[in-house]
């Protein structure tokens, strides 16, 4: 009997729109150079909001101020010898611009601003189908207030 507990990988992503353009990144992946929203993994002890702020800064050198949750997305990938499930929380919000002297994470080539049409036109270069799915939900006006998200500190489990 398999006693290992299955858990999805929890990720966060940011949608930032300015003047009809969206902040995205170009990054090196095992599948080559891909385009994605600023995104990354939730770290131990972090809130979802703190995680999306940190990831956006690390990947774009822009501070991000979340305003709403666009949606949650559960995706399962199967490849020969490898499978993974991701639970993605996508936020929308604003940025006041780049942070001077901020460095991009390893693997991030650049941050760039693309229109929705430009993003649709390069769908074959997206890191995952979630890029367009989340963008579509954002453009459709989907918004959940941030106070919908609750973070609780739990007492340690006793044996």
From TrEMBL:
Single GO MF descriptor: nucleoside diphosphate phosphatase activity
Protein keywords: Hydrolase, Magnesium
Superkingdom of origin: Bacteria
EC number: 3.6.1.-
Coiled coil: none
Cofactor: Mg(2+)
Keyword Metal-binding in annotation: no
Listed SUPFAM superfamilies: Nudix
Domain Nudix hydrolase: 7-137
UniProt xrefs under InterPro entries: NUDIX_hydrolase-like_dom_sf (IPR015797), NUDIX_hydrolase_dom (IPR000086), NudJ (IPR033713)
Record bears the keyword Hydrolase: yes
Pfam families: NUDIX (PF00293)
Record text on subunit structure and interactions: Monomer.
Sequence similarity: Belongs to the Nudix hydrolase family. NudJ subfamily.
PANTHER family per UniProt: NUDIX HYDROLASE 23 (PTHR43222), PHOSPHATASE NUDJ (PTHR43222:SF11)
Protein name: Phosphatase NudJ
């Amino acid at each position: 009997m398999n006693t290992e507990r299955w858990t999805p990988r929890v990720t966060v992503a940011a949608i930032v729109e300015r003047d009809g353009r969206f902040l995205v990144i170009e990054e090196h992946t095992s599948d080559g150079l891909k385009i994605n929203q600023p995104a990354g993994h939730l770290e131990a002890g972090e809130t979802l909001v703190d995680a999306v702020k940190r990831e956006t800064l690390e990947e774009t050198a822009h501070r991000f101020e979340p305003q709403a949750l666009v949606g949650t997305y559960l995706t399962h990938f199967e490849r020969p010898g490898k499978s993974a499930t991701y639970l993605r929380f996508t936020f929308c919000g604003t940025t006041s611009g780049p942070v001077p002297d901020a460095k991009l994470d390893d693997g991030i080539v650049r941050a760039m601003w693309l229109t929705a049409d430009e993003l649709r036109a390069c769908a074959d270069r997206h890191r995952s189908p979630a890029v367009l799915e989340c963008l579509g939900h954002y453009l459709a006006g989907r918004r959940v207030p941030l106070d919908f998200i609750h973070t609780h500190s739990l007492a340690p489990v006793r044996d």
